[in-house]
Specification:
With 180 residues, this protein is mostly helical. Helices cover 47% and strands 10% of the residues. It has helices at residues 2-10, 31-34, 55-63, 76-89, 106-118, 126-134, 143-153, 155-170, and strands at residues 17-19, 42-44, 68-71, 93-97, 122-124. The strands form two sheets. The chain has a three-stranded parallel β-sheet. β3 (68-71), α4 and β4 form a beta-alpha-beta unit. The two termini are 33 Å apart.
Length: 180
């Protein structure tokens, strides 16, 4: 969820934050996310499970004047799916980050993802969303901005970049690296 949250900063995307019931079972927005966007709209819902059922949230999303929404929620089958389906019903193009939420079983995740996909929601992981937003390593943000972000939020890719840097700086391949 932190990597997903950091995408908006990396790509200068508008953001709307929301909680369903701060004094209820779900509690406050994680401080790590809230601190990333201290001036972003934070809609404190009064218990509505589907964020779209809250008039203030709907108004905040509409105020962004965007037709494409990238989203995630705490649970795939409720927080993410309910909002994604509501947004699709309103005509938005919706991209749900399948890595930025979870649920109680693999079966529930599969069912929720199937339901969203059937409604036209694009299901993508964090890396795919980042690459879709970047489109070209030469862009801004491009390699200079995205590689440090990947190093923090997708360390496996950071290792690949470091290995490439080492090979370039060293200028040699060891036996077995050729043709990999």
């Amino acid at each position: 969820m932190l990597a997903h949250s950091a995408l908006a900063s990396l790509f200068s995307l508008p953001i709307v934050l929301t909680t369903s019931a701060e004094t209820g079972p779900n509690g406050l927005l994680p401080k790590e996310i809230a601190s990333m966007y201290p001036s972003a709209p934070l809609i404190r819902r009064n218990g509505e499970v589907d964020a779209w059922d809250n008039a203030d949230f709907r108004a905040a999303v509409r105020a962004q004047n965007k037709s494409q929404i990238i989203l995630a929620g705490i649970t795939t089958d409720v927080c993410t799916a309910f909002l994604a389906l509501s947004l699709r019903a309103e005509g938005y193009a919706v991209f749900a980050n399948t890595e930025a939420s979870g649920t109680f079983t693999d079966e529930l995740a599969r069912d929720a993802n199937d339901r969203m996909r059937d409604a036209g929601v694009v299901l993508q992981g964090t890396f795919s969303i980042a690459m879709d937003l970047m489109r070209d390593w030469r862009n801004t943000p491009g390699s200079a901005q995205v590689l440090p972000w990947l190093d923090v939020y997708l360390p496996a890719y950071g290792y690949i970049a470091r290995a490439h840097e080492a090979a370039v700086l060293n200028g040699t391949l060891v036996p077995g690296e050729e043709g990999l």
